[in-house]
Amino acid sequence: MHEMMVAQSLLAAISDEAAKHNAKPIAAKISCGGLSAVNDEILCFAFEAIAKDTPCEGMKLLIEHKPLRAKCRDCSRDFDVDLSMPKCAECDSENFELLADAPLLLEEIELQTD
Amino acid sequence: MKKIDIVKKILDANEKYAFENVLFLAEHKKLCLNMISSPGSGKTTILTRTINDLKGELKIGVIEGDIQTDIDAERIRRTKAPVVQINTDGACHLSAAQVSAALRELPVKDLDLIFVENVGNLVCPSDFDLGENGKIVVLSVAEGDDKPIKYPGIFAKSKVLLINKIDLLEGGLVDFDIERAKTDARRLNKDIEIFPVSARTGEGMTDWCDWLRQSVKTV
Asked: How far apart, in whole angstroms, are the C-alpha atoms of residue B138 and residue B158?
């Protein structure tokens, strides 16, 4: 249930930004990498619970999972790797290495402007 | 409606403390290793065995993370190594802030090596950097050889894989294809060092301890 800590950090970051713009946040886009252990449903549930009675109450979270990238050691190409079928998307080689995974990012906030 | 682009690391509060820990450890020139595994893989037994096997050579301190109790800290205390227990009260991983506070309670100046034993969990701790010099993932053979591929995050991020309880392989007490586990772990992480050990019998501990001796020198 480490999504709760992610939700708390997210709430703090969104609240800071919204306060700077003096506007109510209505949605946010976040992204994470393929190795990140964040479950969308649990994160949204945790966020909803802690956002209650704050300016972030009722916000929509859009979570984008960026594919994990790998580099094939046989054909040298970079490809999106599916760890349930770990092989090169181009040449089927199983001889590859994982590239750096995308970090957990808050990318965009939508604010109400009326 | 207005959209604003941010691009901000969500866990930057944790990362701020993690960076402080990096600086603290660098300033004191100490090696700190974050040990992660499922519950019951033998982390504490590995630690007590390692502390005893390296007695007189390396001074080791331990930060113990558990949801509750100080059972593990008590086991470490019996080896006479300094230990600080953190209870997370339900949280499934240690945070860098908790480790920062615990580091200040240990006699760091007198130590060569600090182990952090994370909360038993193969998933959540892998997302939280503690500012350590490296992660050590422990997989016991009783858990099955499919764990690297089922829990790729922690195997991809670790410096060392300890395959523990290898004494159970003799006599065919468990079905565990050690070569499969090694191949899958190396596919996720080409640089991972792998040491098959039995902390109970001491088998394989020499290579692991040699790796520690070498790593302490190169901090």
From this structure: 10
Please give the span between the terminal C-alpha atoms of chain A, in angstroms, as a whole number.
37
Looking at residue A97, its pLDDT comes to 85
Q: pLDDT category, B93, cuts 50, 70, 90?
A: very high
Please return the burial class of A53, using the count of CB atoms within 10 Å of its CB with bins 0-12, 13-18 and 19+.
exposed
A interface residues, B as partner, C-beta within 8 Å: 1-2, 5-6, 9-10, 12-13, 17, 21, 23, 26, 30, 35-38, 83-84, 86, 94, 96-98, 101, 103-113
Domain count, chain B: 1
Residue B92's domain spans which residues? Answer: 12-217
Q: How far is A74 from chain B (nearest CA, A)?
A: 13
Question: How far apart are the CA of B91 and the nearest CA of chain A, in angstroms?
Answer: 7
Quick check: A1 pLDDT over 80?
Answer: no
Instruction: Examine residue B5 and state whether it is found in any structural domain, yes or no.
Output: no
B120 domain residue, yes or no = yes
Q: Which CATH class is domain A3-67+102-111?
A: alpha beta
CB atoms within 10 A of CB A43: 20
Question: Which of A98, A111, A113 comes nearest B188 by C-beta?
Answer: A98
Q: Where are the domains of chain A?
A: 3-67+102-111
- B6 within some domain: no
Nearest Cα of chain B lies from the Cα of A41 at a distance, in angstroms, of 16
> What does the pLDDT look like over A29-55, one tens digit per residue?
999 998 888 899 999 999 999 999 999
pLDDT value for A86: 81
- Residue B99 sits in a domain of what CATH number? 3.40.50.300
CB contact under 8 A, B93 and A38: no
Question: Which CA distances in Å does B213 have to B23, B59, B98?
Answer: 22, 11, 27
Rounded CA separation B94/B99 (Å): 7
Q: What mean pLDDT do residues B58-85 have?
A: 97
